[in-house]
Design brief:
This protein has 246 residues and is α/β, with parallel strands linked by helices. The chain is 31% helix and 24% strand. The chain has helices spanning 13-26, 44-54, 62-69, 77-85, 88-96, 136-142, 221-230, 234-242, and strands at residues 2-6, 31-33, 100-103, 107-110, 123-125, 131-133, 150-152, 160-163, 169-172, 180-183, 189-192, 198-206, 209-217. The protein has a five-stranded mixed beta sheet, with no helix packed on it. A four-stranded mixed beta sheet has the order 2-1-12-13. Strands 5-6 form a two-stranded antiparallel ribbon. A hairpin with a 2-residue loop joins strand 12 and strand 13. Helix 1 (13-26) packs parallel to helix 2 (44-54). The longest helix has 14 residues, at 13-26. It is globular.
Amino acid sequence: MIFAAIADIHGNHLALEAVLEDIRRLGVDAIVNLGDCFSGPLDAGKTAEILLGLDLPTVRGNHDRYLVEQAVEAMGPSDAHALRQLDEGDREWLGRLPFDMVWWDEVYLCHATPKDDSTYWLETVTSGGHVVPRPIAEIEAWAEGVPQSLILCSHTHLPRTVRLADGRLVVNPGSVGCPAYTDDRPYPHKVEARNVHACYAVCEKRGDAWAVTFRQVPYDNMAMAMLAVKNGRPDWASALATGFIR
């Protein structure tokens, strides 16, 4: 059993194309998608054209939900930009996405945590705005009731694995299309992957254990940074060009 896990594309169609080509080159046929597909000041329309044609097992991210539930005037700029580029079929597809999913009986998929789609699972934010690993007891508590041996989450854009006491593995594959961002919940903070490559993970079942390989794929990130500049988002341009918010 071997497959690729992608997440947090955020409208970056060039990064998605590079990741899909890398997956094909590896000879991996199966892919799952952990959500946050389109939101961003990039090209949601081209991303949707690629993604919907693949018909991947996909769970809903928080920004996918915002694009369905919120009025455009209530949206943040990244969501509003993406919504204007999506057609009715794209929005209907978003509306059908499940919150979570069990795949191949052994793999659990969610965007953030099994409880909600907007809380960091493997990390937490201090009152000083530092993003740090979450205590293992809290990670374990949120995994209660999920019996699958491999648990996939995303949302923080940071590649990471955490092995639970009973041997289950929680994996965040990182972000395909957005290497850094800022947020103000629960405290103002930055999340920075500190590289500009498109990230995903390959997961392989070997006997009773899972082997996970994180992949970092180069692509024309500067073209996407320039698009962010054109669309009035210097924060995104910095993230795409450097992996940092500057």
